[in-house]
Specification:
This protein has about 600 residues and is of the alpha/beta class. It is about 35% helix and about 15% strand. It is built from 22 helices and 21 strands. The chain has an eight-stranded parallel sheet. A six-stranded antiparallel sheet has the order 14-15-16-21-18-19. Strand 14 and strand 15 form a beta hairpin.
Length: about 600
């Protein structure tokens, strides 16, 4: 057993949470990271024992265009601040993993700057992919190179170069020796070279016992990345999509099918494939925003904490804040929050009380970390399964319907079970329990004499009836949770937006982190069959003719072609356009990516 086998993660995007400027002035350090020290106690209070925080190191803007891997971003403070922050996390029993952006660097990184200065004579000309001194790029450097996702701001490292591998492995050693971190989340792991990742895993095994490597992977056969030679875990985007759409569409079959398929990938063993589970993060909409029925916040999180895998909560979502993905900005997904605004949330906020109860239950119930998964009941609107460990069964029941539902399911050999959230007790009759699952809610049933029973008896949900909790959450659709949360989460008004856009036109635009799902054509919603989609669909009875559909398709293609021609025209003013440059532009058929590309020209 390793620490990450029993981890419950909290995820922080520090530049957003601290309200750091969008552009790095490279000035004197501002000690914003220290303002997050009070959050450590909050993280522990809601039942999390691990923190994923990043990106942290010196960068141009959003943090993923690294300037210096060995220096805390000056907008956040100094290396001493980071060392002190990690030490305080450890003191309070919280492991820490950082973002490792090892697929690409920013243009201010020393190796790229040396190429700009010395061109063909640079000792670092082979540190990046396909550097061509006969080409050009959107910054008119007089040479071209391979970027990530169509963004010349992000210069792709040559992972086959031994010098690059050695440098990045040395960065990992530095992070451990200087900051004592416990693991790394590899950004864009689904495009990393496998030999490169094997070198990183070798270094991870060397630097610290149980040092954890987790990779950002959107879709595919996760076992390609998760194995003894490469990574310990990857981001479970498959389950992420299933959790919200399975509730929005009243389709628990989608969730159960996804779980069964992923569990099978790991050899149908609880230790076979421990994926990093989440319902939202810094790249996707907040779960509270995503759900059509806000009361489904309860069953969604019950599943997050009880299905096979390692659960993670994104900062602020435990308060039930909103966050909508916008065309040109991820700012609303990464807001600045003041913890003092939520000082009594663990007592007075139904969302926070639920998350804290689930965290406490997870930490005190080994079956939820190590137990075998067994499906017990499945309909469109009801779902039950057990997690079996050391001869004991923990039973999970959820219901996405607006009415209560009574179900009878297998429960093992114990005489009595207790609800971890409600404190309700039920008797076992013939190896089965009959329970009433509240509308738009659920429960975790634990043997009264088993692991976790004491925590359940302590009433993890503070004695609040689960039905009442679901009603509170449903009521939140009609009223703001807290004035401060509403102000920080609601998109800006039309007047504010117009003013912001006018201001933006007067200065060089600094892009937010590229939308990885758009740039790499790997959005789970676009690659998973099912009804869930953000695209507008005809209302019932609305007739859309084939001609209308054809016109719409042609119009969209025309917009893309126009953007491509605009980019080529701008590039042509900076120098000759090579066949490769033209191909790069024409291969990019993503609207947002093309818009950001145009905005990147200076």
């Amino acid at each position: 057993m390793a620490w990450y086998d029993e981890a419950v993660f909290y995820h922080i995007y520090p530049l957003g949470l601290t309200g750091a400027p969008k552009e790095n002035p490279y000035g004197e350090p501002e000690h914003r990271l220290n303002t997050l020290l009070p959050w450590i106690a909050h993280i522990r209070e809601i039942g999390c024992n691990a923190l994923y925080i990043g990106p942290l190191f010196e960068s141009v803007g959003h943090g993923y265009e690294t300037t210096d891997y060995k220096k805390l971003d000056s907008r956040l403070g100094t290396n001493e601040d980071l060392a002190g922050f990690v030490a305080e996390c450890h003191k309070q029993g919280i492991k820490v993993i950082l973002d490792g952006v090892f697929n690409h660097t920013g243009r201010d990184f020393f190796a790229f700057q040396d190429i700009k200065k010395n061109r063909e004579n640079s000792a670092y000309k082979d540190w990046y992919c396909n550097v061509n001194f006969w080409g050009n790029n959107s910054f008119n450097d007089g040479f071209s190179y391979e970027n990530w996702g169509g963004y010349d701001l992000l210069v792709k490292l040559n992972q086959h170069n031994p010098a690059v591998k050695d440098y990045i492995c040395d960065v990992i050693r530095f992070w451990v020796s200087e900051f004592d971190i416990d693991g790394i989340r590899l950004d864009a792991a689904d495009v990393l070279d496998f030999n490169y990742m094997q070198a990183l895993r070798h270094t991870a095994n060397e630097v610290k016992p149980d040092f954890w490597l987790m990779g950002e992977v959107i879709h595919g056969d996760y076992t390609r990345w998760v194995n003894e030679g490469t990574l310990h875990s990857v981001t479970n985007y498959n389950l992420h999509k299933a959790l919200y759409s399975g509730h929005n569409e009243h389709n628990y079959f989608e969730i159960a099918h996804t779980v069964k398929r992923l569990y099978g990938m790991g050899g149908n063993r609880p230790d076979g494939l421990k994926l990093y589970n989440f319902v939202d993060n810094h790249d996707v909409e907040r779960i509270y925003t995503r759900l059509n029925n806000k009361a489904h916040f309860t069953p969604v999180h019950i599943l997050l904490y009880t299905l096979p895998g390692v659960p993670s909560v994104y900062y602020g979502s435990e308060f039930g804040i909103e966050g909508r993905k916008e065309r040109f900005s991820d700012d609303s997904l990464r807001p600045a929050l003041d913890l003092s605004d939520y000082a009594d949330a663990a007592k007075n906020n139904s969302f926070t009380r639920l998350i804290a109860a689930l965290g406490k239950t997870r930490q005190n119930t080994p079956a939820l970390s190590y137990g075998e998964y067994n499906e017990l009941l499945l309909t469109n609107r009801q779902y039950a399964f057990s997690r079996n460990h050391n001869g004991r069964s923990v039973v999970v029941t959820v219901n996405n319907d607006d009415s209560d539902y009574t179900m009878t399911v297998s429960a093992g050999n114990d005489a009595e079970y207790i609800g971890a959230l409600s404190g309700e007790k039920v008797s076992v009759n013939g190896g089965r329990i009959t329970v009433n699952v509240k509308a738009n809610s659920g429960e975790i049933w634990i043997p009264v004499t088993g692991d976790g029973a004491d925590a359940a008896i302590d009433a993890g949900f503070s004695g609040l009836d689960v039905k009442d909790a679901a009603a509170e959450i449903k009521q939140a659709e009609k009223m703001p949770l807290e004035e401060t949360a509403e102000k920080k989460a609601v998109p800006e008004t039309s007047d504010e937006k117009a003013a912001s856009e006018q201001k933006t036109e007067k200065k060089t635009v600094q892009l937010d982190e590229p939308d990885k799902k758009d740039a790499a054509e790997k959005t789970p919603e676009q690659n998973t069959a099912g009804p869930a989609s953000d695209k507008k669909t005809p209302a019932a009875g609305e007739n859309v003719s084939g001609a209308d559909a054809a016109y719409t398709e042609a119009f969209e293609k025309g917009k893309i072609a126009g953007l491509q021609e605009a980019i080529l025209a701008i590039m042509g003013k900076n120098g000759p356009i090579t066949d490769q440059m033209r191909k790069d532009v024409m291969d990019n058929v993503y609207h947002d990516s093309l818009i950001n590309w145009i905005k990147s020209f200076r």
